[in-house]
Every structure is written in C-alpha cells, then in structure tokens.
Amino acid sequence: MKRKANRQLSSLQGMLEKQYFGKKLAILISMMISIITVLLYLPVFRWISVVNTESLYETLKVKEKAIALLETNYSLFNILSFVQHTRAGSIGLYSMILLFLIIAALYFNLVFLLRIIKKKNIKGNLSIYSAAHPAMIFSVILCIATIIYIDFANSKFGMTGFVLSPAVYLILIISIIAFIFIKLVESKERLLYREHGFLYELKKNWILFLMLVPTFLYLIINNYLPMVGVYYAFTSFNFKDGLWASPFVGFKNFEHLLKADLFKLTKNTILYNLAFIGIGNILQIAFAIFVSRVGIKWFKRTSQTLMFMPYFVSFVILKVLVYNLFEYQSGMINTAMVSLGLDRIDFYNEPSYWPYLITVFYLWKNIGYGIVVYLATIMGISDEYYDAAKVDGASILQQIRYITLPLIKPTFIILFLYALGSIMKGQFELFYQLVGTNGVLYNATDIFDTFVYRITTTQPLSIGMGTAAGLYQAVFGFIVILVTNFFVKRKNPDYALF
C-alpha cells in the first residue's frame, strides 16, 4: 500500500512538473487559483449576509436612523460600517483584524502573480515558490478566521445574525490544493539548487533557533501584543464597556485630531526632528573626528568624559537650569542684561526664541552620547590608510575628506535611517520639562507627544484620540523610512536597511 501511494504521489508530481506555455502545470494551476481568490476578495463579492434583521437590531438596540444606513450583505472591507452603525464594539476588533488579513492576502496574491509574470531565471522557479507560500497561507488563514468570526459574532449576539458565503469555503479548499501542488514540485527544485526549506534548517540548527525563543517571546509580549491597543483609536472608549465592547466610531477620533490643528503638530514635530537629526549628526561626526585626532591621552579622555556627562543630566535638573537662566525677574541672562543697561527679555512669553533654545539644549545633552558610535567606527579604520596618505603628502583635512568621511558614510546612513523611523516621535521629556503647560509657547513648541499627553491627562475619556495620534505618528514614520530606504537602495543597496 505504501509503495502504491508513493507511486501515485510520484505520478502526480511528474504530471505537475510538465511544461505548458513555458511554465510548470503546478504554477499555472496556482496562478489560476490566485486570480480566482483575488477576484473573490474584491468588495463587489459579499462574504457575509445579515439575517434575522429585526431580532438582531432589537438585540443590539440599533436606533432607527442607523438602521437606514445598514445593509444586508457585507464584504470584509465594509463590515466595519456595520459595527460602526450598530455600535457593536464587541466584534469591532475582530472585524478590523479581518480587514487587515484580507489586505495582506490580497497583497501577497498580487505579488505572487507579478512574480510569475516577471519571472527571473535565478535558481529556476524558487522565487515563484517563495512568493506562493505567503499568498496561499494568508488565504487559508483569512478563510479560517472568517469562519470562526461568524460563530464568534453569532455567539455575541445570542442568535444567528450572520451567515457566511460559500465563496469562503471555495477559497479555503483551492488555496490548500494550490499550496500542496507548489510543495510537491518545489522539493525537487530545492535539491537541484541545494536550497533547503525552513524545516531542514530547523532540524539542522535547532540549538540556534532555541536561543532565539527568548527574543521572540520578548518581541511578541512587548512589541506585538500591545499593538492590539491600536483599536482604541477607532472607539469611543469608556470604562464601563472596556476596550472590547466600547462603541466603534470609525475615523471620528482622526477627524477630531484633524480639527486640533494636525498640520501644526506635524510641522513642529518634523522640523524639530530634522534639526535634531541633521545638526546632531554633523556635530557628532565633527566632534568624533576632533577627539580621534587628539594625541594626548589624558586630554582625549577628559574631553570624552566632559562631552558625555550632559547625557546623564536629568530633564528635571535641566528644567531648573533653563529656568534659572531665562526667568524674567531673576534669571541669569536678564540679570546680566539689566546690569549692562539693556532691557529684559520675557523668554517665557515670546515663542520665537524657543525653537532655537530647545535645539541647543537637545544638542548639548545628546552630542556626547551620539559621538560614541562614530568614534568607534573611526577608531576601527586601519592606520595603514592614513600612513599611506601621509606618504603621498595628504594634509589632515585631506585625510579626513578622502579617508575618514567615506569610511564612516555607511554608519551615518544607517543611523540616519533609524532616526527617520521615529521622525514623528518627539523628545517628550525635553519639551514637557522646558515648556510645561505654558500655553503661550504651544504654537512654536507643541509636538505630538506633548499634545497626546495633555489630552489624555486633562481629558481621561479622550484615550481614543490619543491613540489615534500615536497611530498617525507610527504610520507616518513607517512610510518615511520605507520611501527613504527605497531611494537609498536604488543608489547603493549596501547602505539600505532592507
């Protein structure tokens, strides 16, 4: 029986490996399945039907105005509209997860189809197979999640309110078939090009994978599970219903954020961070070069220590120092100006000074810490380069220009890309301690972090708006780093993050 099964499997494998129109039969079948699934993903195909509407709306206590906006058939793209109009927050998070899953499944299926069309003859069809795996896996996950969603929603309603379309079961079955076909023809090709799959690598290097488990758990617990809280941004949160049952309000929190002068907050946050990143990196590189060029050891160590010390100064202490410098009546600067016969400057009522003051104090506090990486890179440059340059008659400036700067360029680009990822994340402690709740200075100093802190502490029920602002920051930073990395990769792939 076992031999017969093996012969049948080999026969099926051989049939799938036959070439038609320049491609293997398994790839053509998978391509057709992917096209079908992509078409069925489109919003015109409704996956969920609402039944027992009168009883359902009565159970959910839906208002008559909202009933007029409801439909009887929904796709996964607009199921959140049902949640919003019925305010059924208990199924809101799950509905949003389905929306993310269908977007991901649609994306991976389109990538798979494009990979087939633009096939590159590198290691046969392995690139196509690698694109097929996530496409089929996400299709299967999406269908299973949707089936469970129907049971979950109906249990929450206490009745049959949702019915699933047969198209979901069709996608589930054909996606599993496509995945099996791909795996059957992939195995031989992997052996041919000596490319091993994940299971082989896991078996061979299981100790290394075991060492990754603590890191994996840490990232899941501390980085990915908290992302569930993003759902706050789409709810009118109240402590009575909690996160899972608070009314779903769609993009209303983002509308409030837009009315709260989103442009000003975005402009301030970006301009401050560009100043911090640009001026900060230039000064860090300059000081790192200066320190590396100092020949006297005790002076080099003393300089490094003095530059590094401000980093350990508490922001509370910094606030005290700044206040004693710029206070109107008894501040050091105003006292000195009066003694020189000049008029006092009311720094705390004049916004125009603070962009420069905040930038100066940020640089003073962080330059010492920032030069560590650049100094380590410079110290790692072989002395042979400089010795050869000296023999050729290069001056110190020429050595810096043609040796030091080109060799620390990769470090600068990587640090720059990392910094751009948090371009919408301001230095909250710095701004809050220096400016505090001085509303006169908000126009020039208010950034997203201080704004979020202020609305979530002064208006506790505005948690949704604060989360919406945080989500906007994260998405904005993500897009910035993707775009920047794309251009860096086109210019020089070795300097790109990914």
Rounded to the nearest angstrom, the radius of gyration is 30 Å
- Terminal CA distance: 49 Å
Low-confidence stretches: none
**What would you say the CATH architecture of the largest domain is?**
Orthogonal Bundle
Sketch the major β-sheet: 3 strands, antiparallel
Mean pLDDT level: 85
Whole-number tally of structural domains: 2
Helix content estimate: over 70%
Q: Can you tell me the CATH superfamily of the largest domain?
A: MetI-like
Instruction: Give the H and E element order.
Output: HEEHEHHEHHHEHHHHHHHHHHHHHHHH
Number of helices: 23
Q: Fill in the CATH topology of the largest domain.
A: MetI-like fold
Task: Provide tags for this entry.
498 residues, mainly alpha, 3-stranded antiparallel beta sheet, two-stranded antiparallel sheet, 2% strand, flat
Could you explain how this protein is built, in words?
The protein is mainly alpha-helical. It has 2 domains: 2-195, no CATH class; 257-495, MetI-like (MetI-like fold, Orthogonal Bundle). The protein has 23 helices and 5 strands. The protein has helices at 2-16, 25-41, 53-60, 64-67, 79-86, 92-117, 126-157, 166-192, 198-204, 206-224, 242-245, 252-259, 262-293, 297-308, 315-326, 332-339, 354-379, 383-391, 396-421, 428-435, 442-445, 448-458, 463-491, and strands spanning 19-20, 23-24, 48-50, 73-74, 162-164. A 3-stranded antiparallel β-sheet has the order 4-3-5. It has a two-stranded antiparallel ribbon with strand order 1-2. A hairpin with a 2-residue loop joins β1 (19-20) and β2 (23-24). α19 packs across α23 (463-491). The longest helix has 32 residues, at 126-157. It is flat and about 95 Å long. The mean pLDDT is 85.
